[in-house]
């Protein structure tokens, strides 16, 4: 039986779509078997097999339900051992990790005494979460050796070979002996536990203005790379043009960086961090530009920035090379800023005693109290001489202030509009 004209017309209607579909399927099959699929853009989704060594694979993100762990670098120089110790005790929490660095200008005896003192501290020794850099780096103010020192500490926190180190940290925070906290660690951990673990708190701008002529175009040499004694950077007559391969950013040298971004800078599965590091090796005040330029030129991280350094700092207007030293007169403004840290302080200034007493509830030469303190207060004993449950937090007024700052920084008006512009 022959098909009718109507049924033949219906059959012919499907011929063109069928032919087109078959051709597209064949083309897709050829493409899939001939060309590899592109790698995913997110570092967290990369397969460990893509890396030459297993340790180069980015670590999985911590569960958002767990409390974060913070990794602190606290740096100082000659005469800063006492201040370094005080900052550590004010910042201390058994959950966190700490590296203390007295640069090579400080005598070896200062490092040895600091190490011995901390080794004899009952809580610090029991927790085993504080390390003093034994082979100190020579750090030049305004030079790239400051960046190298920061990267050194970050790499040490990441090093887990042979069971050394601890991989379970979430943010890396660099401070100096002239910094001081304005919140307790319970306050800080409590507020950070509510945040996405990939955020990078880094004050930054691409509007470098006068810095292009005075910092980007000159070429400097950091004597800390070649000499045994500290000296200021020196300049060479040649000048250079601004790079075109990446956009320059500048900002504060004090930052709170996410573990994924630190891994990106250290493990280096992309060449950008190394390229930028080589450029900043001859850049004046490179600590105020290296991490900023890397994070804002990396597609994986440029949308993770929070444009704030989490510090209260008092500057002249226009800013001079150094900020003001803070005193008791500045205490109300520090607290009103809602920032968790402040700088600069003279060692053992009266204002530090006020912060200990009124904000941290910390006694002289004691640790800042927290929910982890399991000791007794009987007969004037220090309750923080015994480590209890380190996941137990007792946030106070500082957490309210810090939460207010975070709410403002992550608002629609401030978060996206201020990222890497």
From TrEMBL:
Signal peptide (UniProt feature, chain positions): none
GO-annotated cellular components: membrane
Membrane topology: Single-pass type II membrane protein
One Pfam family this sequence matches: Branch
Transmembrane annotation, as ranges: none
Subcellular location: Membrane
Superkingdom classification of source: Eukaryota
Name of the protein: BGGP Beta-1-3-galactosyl-O-glycosyl-glycoprotein
Organism per entry: Zizania palustris (Northern wild rice)
């Amino acid at each position: 039986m022959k098909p009718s004209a109507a049924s033949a017309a219906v059959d012919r209607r499907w011929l063109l779509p069928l032919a087109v579909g078959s051709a597209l399927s064949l083309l897709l099959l050829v493409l899939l078997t001939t060309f590899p699929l592109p790698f995913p853009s997110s570092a967290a989704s990369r397969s460990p097999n893509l890396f030459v060594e297993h340790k180069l694979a980015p670590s999985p993100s911590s569960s958002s339900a767990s409390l974060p762990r913070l990794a602190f670098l606290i740096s100082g120089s000659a005469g800063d051992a006492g201040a370094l110790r005080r900052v550590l005790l004010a910042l201390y929490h058994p959950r966190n990790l700490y590296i203390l660095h007295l640069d090579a200008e400080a005598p070896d005896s200062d490092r040895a005494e600091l190490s011995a003192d901390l080794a004899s501290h009952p809580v610090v020794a029991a927790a085993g979460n504080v390390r003093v850099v034994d082979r100190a780096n020579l750090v030049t103010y305004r030079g790239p050796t400051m960046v190298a020192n920061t990267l050194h500490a970050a790499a040490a926190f990441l090093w887990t070979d042979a069971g050394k180190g601890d991989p379970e940290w979430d943010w890396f925070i660099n401070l100096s002996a002239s910094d001081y906290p304005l919140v307790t660690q319970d306050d800080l951990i409590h507020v950070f536990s509510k945040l996405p673990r990939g955020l990078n708190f880094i004050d930054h701008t691409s509007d470098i203005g006068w810095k292009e002529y005075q910092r980007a175009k000159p070429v400097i040499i950091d004597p800390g790379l070649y000499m045994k004694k500290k000296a200021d950077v020196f300049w060479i007559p040649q000048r250079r043009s601004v790079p075109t391969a990446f956009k320059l950013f500048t900002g504060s040298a004090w930052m709170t960086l996410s573990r994924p971004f630190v891994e990106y800078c250290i493990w280096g599965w992309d060449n950008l961090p190394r390229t930028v590091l080589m450029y900043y090796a001859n850049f004046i005040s490179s600590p105020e530009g290296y991490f900023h330029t890397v994070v804002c030129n990396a597609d994986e991280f440029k949308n993770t920035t929070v444009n704030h350094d989490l510090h209260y700092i008092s500057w002249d207007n226009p800013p001079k090379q150094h900020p003001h030293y803070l005193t008791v007169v500045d205490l109300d403004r520090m607290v009103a800023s809602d920032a968790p840290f402040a700088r600069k302080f003279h060692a053992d200034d009266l204002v530090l005693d006020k912060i200990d007493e009124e904000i941290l509830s910390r006694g002289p030469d004691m640790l800042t109290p927290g929910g982890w303190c399991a000791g007794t207060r009987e007969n004037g004993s220090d309750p923080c001489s015994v480590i209890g449950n380190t996941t137990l937090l007792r946030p106070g007024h500082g957490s309210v202030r810090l939460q207010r700052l975070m709410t403002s920084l992550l608002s629609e008006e401030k978060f996206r509009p201020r990222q890497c512009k």
